[in-house]
Amino acid sequence: MLPSACVWLDGRIRNPESYYQKAIQFAVRSHDPFQKIVGTWLIRRLSPESNPIEIDDLPEERDEETLLYAMGSEAANVHMGSKRQAVNILRDLRRRELNWLRSAARDMAKAMEGDWKRYRDS
To answer: Is 66 part of any domain?
Structure first.
């Protein structure tokens, strides 16, 4: 149970608080009764239905756009657990340019490819 890597990147490691418990507590979805935090441990059930989705294991005919939309919705729901956060998120989104996410994703892909090439060549 560690704080976001963004905290470390910004040099703000004085408060190593994890917000995971709050995130799952206020998520806008049904709670998993088998998931809990005990001390510094995250306890989850082991089950064939609880495995991550592997893109390579999906059938040839599929709809990635629908899948990615559902995955994004699930990832976003933890941020919508309180009205205050929803208001802050919507305010932030209104200030952004139309294609900010696509542009940021493109920039990140370029940066990661550059990192990978440097790693490969070293």
So the answer is: no
